[in-house]
Amino acid sequence: MTWYSKQLLAPVYRNGKLKLFSLAFAFGLWILVNYGERDTEKTLVVPVEFYNLPEQFVITGARDDYIDLRLRGPRSLLEGIKSKRIPLDLNDVRPGVSTFRINADSLNLPRGVRIVRISPAQVNLDIARLIRRTVPVRLETVGTVPRGYTLAAPELLPDKVEVSGPSSLVEKIRMIQTDSFDLSSLTQSVTPTLNLRGPEEESVSYSVQKVLAKIDVQEVILTREFRNVKIDIRNATQRATLTPERVQVKVRGPQRVLEGSEAPAIDAFVDALEQNTGEATVPVAIVLSPGLELVSREPEEVHLRFADDEKKKPRPVKPTPNRKK
Asked: Is residue 311 packed enough to be buried (19+ CB in 10 Å), middle (13-18) or exposed (0-12)?
């Protein structure tokens, strides 16, 4: 070996034992790390991503949105797998059940990582054709309006809605109901806004979510006759009598008043203010409870006679007995 060669190799042999130890330690550490990673496993819950579903189709029924994976491989590679998605291209699906198998190709895993367990191993999708249909809306009510009131036919705005969803569901829908509306305490017309209540499936939708209900409530009006209503005499300065003394009154008004627990107030009278002597035919006046309307009275006039007329008649002269002189 020449002097030049010795000078060139001198740095290599310098501290040779230390360098050899370092090299052996690094090699042993590499073997230890790689040997320890061989049995490393990791569990992942991976979401399934559906895309390219044609507009005329919809997914119905239950479906698997997540896949459970058990992976094995080097720890360094497994730790790098933090977020994964399983994309499923639905561009070629047709109505019916479509099956997609889940494998390593679906996951695009790093080289050296393999699948130990996958659940479920396939995803089944029920594909249905999406249709639209116009159906009527019906007002759902509970109870009845109170006695004395009547309910006209309700009006809904709008009275029809467009329903869209899977053909298997939409074809069964004959009408859409509103939320229930309580009539039991309703005594006047109202216009509530009510939610629609149809099939609860998420795949079914409506062109509107609420409707306006016009609920018209009116009082029941009827006619009733009251017999033998006593006629009073007002403003008489002397005792007087009437012929006849009673009148029949026919009135019109709300049922709740005319057929209530308390009889309505009916005041019949004649005014004798300008008829203080003799006899006269006077009209019968009627005063009714608020809300009532007079239809007729029979008789409309009565005969008024003052009792003082008896006093004005000449008294018979009694013969004077003869006295003896």
From this structure: exposed
Q: How far apart are CA 194 and CA 171, in angstroms?
A: 24
Number of neighbouring beta carbons within 10 Å of residue 39: 8
Mean pLDDT computed over 311-319: 51
Query: Which is more confidently placed, 197 or 135?
Result: 135
Mean model confidence pLDDT for the chain:
83
Do 142 and 182 contact (CB within 8 A), yes or no? yes
The answer to whether 254 touches 148, Cβ cutoff 8 Å, is yes
Contact 188, 219 (CB under 8 A): no
Question: Could you give the CA distance from residue 32 to residue 176 in angstroms, rounded to a whole number?
Answer: 70
Residue type, 312: K
Terminal alpha carbon distance of the chain: 216
H-type helices in the chain, by residue range? 3-13, 16-37, 75-80, 104-107, 167-170, 255-258, 309-312
Q: Which residues contact 131 (CB under 8 A, 6 or more apart)?
A: 164, 165, 166, 167, 170, 171
Residues in contact with 48: Cβ distance below 8 Å, sequence separation at least 6, in sequence order: 64, 65, 66, 67, 85, 86, 88, 123
Q: Is the pLDDT of residue 217 over 90?
A: yes
Which two structure tokens, joined as six digits, stand for 238? 């002397």
Q: Are 46 and 85 spatial neighbours (Cβ–Cβ below 8 Å)? A: yes
Among the residues of 14-61, which ranges form H helices? Answer: 16-37
Give the HSE-up count for residue 222: Cα atoms under 13 Å, Cβ half-sphere. 12
- Domains and their CATH numbers in the chain: 41-129 (2.170.120.30), 137-219 (2.170.120.40), 221-312 (2.170.120.30)
Question: What is the C-alpha to C-alpha distance for residues 82 and 73, in angstroms, rounded to an integer?
Answer: 14
pTM > 0.70: no
Give the Cα separation of 231 and 215 in Å (integer): 44
Tokens 């008649």 correspond to: 313
